[in-house]
Design brief:
Blueprint lengths: L2 E2 L4 E2 L10 E4 L7 E2 L1 H9 L5 E6 L2 E4 L4 E3 L11 E7 L10 H7 L5 E3 L9 H9 L3 E4 L6 H15 L5 E5 L5 H14 L3 E5 L6 H8 L3 E2 L5 E2 L3 E6 L2 H8 L4 H9 L5 H6 L8 E5 L4 E2 L5 H19 L6 E5 L5 H10 L4 E3 L13 H8 L6 E5 L9 E5 L5 H14 L8 H11 L4 H15 L1 H9 L1 H22 L15 H9 L12 H23 L6 H4 L6 H7 L4
Parallel strand pairs: 9-10, 9-19, 10-11, 11-12, 12-15, 15-16, 16-18, 18-19
Antiparallel strand pairs: 1-2, 3-7, 3-8, 4-6, 5-6, 5-8, 13-14, 17-21, 20-21
Helix pairs in contact: 3-4, 4-5, 5-6, 7-10, 11-19, 13-17, 15-16, 15-17, 16-17
């Protein structure tokens, strides 16, 4: 496309930009010629875009009548309509059934970030904005989780909110205690994360209170949004609850036989988040292949089981820019979920120093490291490597665990490094403090460790890994080199997009402004895609959606 810089005129290319219809003016306002006018029109997502030919120049038509018929003679005074895109507000993105089910305005989730990084403030802000946030309950005590429930239920009211439910194979009683708490306190929406197998507590949560309405339809008060990166796990969530687990729940008196029969008509999760290359627990899957695979699975399981409600798939991992959100919805995602980028926002339950570290990071500044909750299994999490030694030290601990049978077998020189740089205490003292912790949290772990030196070593190493994220959240200055900050490459993509704008500074970032920028930007870029498929060559500014403040975003979604 030829651009005359002074007048910002866009020349139409006759070989590409053929008419898609005709536009008849109403005589009130003449078409606006130029790239600036086109960019404004494309980004004002609440109004349709009508692009017309004015003496070989691309112009925006206002008012009048557009006829989408490329063939036939034009009426008197009509101009060639070379491009048309209907209004597309951010609340029209994704699957309307998802928003209706969960009481949302927008198909957007702020994901649960463990240890309260996904804070009460994040959940509250999302709820007020017509989105949903999940409190990061993983790694927290039942007392701390209940305090969060107290606050959120008091401040959010009837608006949507959710809590994290994480699979803890090393501490199954912890998962059971959290489920019992959610049931007692009326938490009706959970994000089920890190599951490898379905567990009794998860199924207990899902089927609690199951009943039929007056029309005979099965009703489940509790909803599960699973976060999954493997097809074999997703298949379990899209299937009805396993009969063997339902049988146990009947035997334990949690449900009756009739309720167990009803459970055959529902999936464990109607909604599933396809988690691509994300922060925390991840298999580093590429979203461009993972999301379509999960969508195909959803269709297959829907056909196989004939559920009354369609199964839905959302996208997470790498969701950080308007382009990535637009791509997710273009692939068929019902909703999008952000995580990594929210940690750099003022509402996140972490320290200012961590938010600043994240705001300065690039896409290459992440790496994999052993996970505290599944250490012995070799499961890894994705973390920030810039500005911290955590990943190197965590991998060293796992190597020592694999090559030694006990703490006593560790060579003296290595032991000295661990005591000086990692634990800042003797390994004997480190075990004593670890023992005291598990004596309260899970006494069975202590009993096992007393008779199994290798398990004792695992618990001590896990204690270091567990504390590193808390040091980061609290901003413990003396431990900055040990900070564990769950982070995916999305943070680098976001930082590049925000560079030079008000969102470059972490103290200017808030979760709703980020979310609305991504959603409004995705709507604008979807319209860009429609126009480009019609052969319209758009100005560069129209093809990029740069950060806006709340007032500017509101103007773009307001009807003219």
């Amino acid at each position: 496309m030829n651009v005359q810089a002074k007048a910002s005129i866009l020349r139409i290319q006759p070989d590409r930009e053929s008419a898609v219809g005709w536009w008849t003016p109403d005589g009130v306002r003449a078409p606006e010629v130029g790239g600036d006018a086109v960019t404004r029109a494309v980004h004002h997502v609440a109004s349709p875009v009508r692009l017309v030919d004015v003496d070989g120049q691309l112009a925006v038509a206002h008012g009048g009548t557009a006829t989408l018929e490329a063939e036939g003679a034009a009426t008197s005074g009509a101009r060639r309509l070379v491009g048309y895109a209907p209004a597309l507000r951010p609340d029209q993105l994704g699957d309307p059934g998802f928003c209706a089910t969960h009481g949302l305005t927008y198909p957007y989730i702020a994901g649960a970030m463990a240890n309260g990084v996904g804070s009460e403030a994040v959940v509250e802000a999302m709820a007020r904005a017509g989105m949903v946030g999940f409190f990061g309950a993983a790694g927290l005590s039942p007392e701390r989780i209940e305090a969060a429930i107290d606050r959120i239920q008091r401040t959010v009211g009837n608006r949507p909110y959710g809590f994290n439910l994480i699979h803890t194979p090393a501490e199954p009683q912890s998962e059971a205690a959290v489920v019992a708490l959610y049931l007692r306190r009326g938490v009706h929406l959970v994000s089920a994360a890190a599951y490898i197998e379905l567990t009794l507590p998860l199924i207990r949560y899902r089927v609690a209170g199951i009943h039929r309405d007056t029309e005979g339809t099965v009703v489940t008060p509790n909803k599960v949004i699973a976060k999954v990166s493997r097809v074999e796990v997703a298949r379990k969530f899209f299937a009805p609850p396993p009969v063997e687990l339902l049988t146990v729940l009947v035997a334990e008196g949690h449900i009756n036989a009739g309720q167990a029969d009803m459970a055959a008509e529902i999936p464990v999760a109607e909604d599933l988040t396809a988690e691509a290359d994300s922060g925390g627990h991840t298999d580093n899957q590429p979203a461009i292949s993972l999301v379509p695979t999960m969508l195909a699975l959803a269709d297959d399981m829907q056909t196989r089981h004939g559920y009354r409600t369609s199964l839905r798939v959302g996208a997470a991992g790498g969701i950080a820019t308007p382009e990535s959100v637009a791509a997710a919805f273009a692939m068929g995602a019902a909703f999008v979920l952000t995580g990594t980028i929210n940690q750099s926002c003022v509402e996140a339950g972490t320290s200012p120093v961590v938010r600043e570290m994240l705001a300065r990071s690039s896409q290459a500044d992440v790496t994999m490291a052993p996970a505290a909750d599944m250490f012995e299994m070799g499961v890894q999490v994705q973390v920030l490597k810039w500005g911290t030694m955590f990943a190197v030290r965590a991998r060293n601990l796992y190597r020592l665990y694999r090559t030694h049978a006990s703490l006593d077998e560790i060579p003296a020189a290595t032991r000295q490094v661990l005591e000086r740089d990692y634990f800042r205490a003797t390994l004997t003292e480190a075990w004593a403090s670890t023992r005291a912790y598990f004596a309260v949290r899970d006494p069975a772990q202590v009993a096992r460790a007393e008779s199994d030196p290798k398990h004792r070593m695992a618990l001590v190493f896990r204690s270091y890994l567990g504390q590193t994220s808390r040091w980061a959240n609290s901003g413990e200055a003396s431990r900055k080199g040990d900070y564990q900050i769950w982070c995916g490459p999305a943070i680098g993509a976001f930082n590049e997009w925000a560079r030079g704008s008000f969102l470059e500074a972490s103290e200017r970032r808030d979760v709703v402004t980020l979310g609305m920028n991504l959603l409004v930007g995705a709507a604008a870029l979807a319209r860009v895609g429609w126009l480009r498929t019609q052969g319209v060559s758009l100005p560069r500014a129209a093809r990029r959606f740069l950060p806006r403040d709340r007032a500017a975003l509101a103007a773009l979604v307001a009807c003219e």
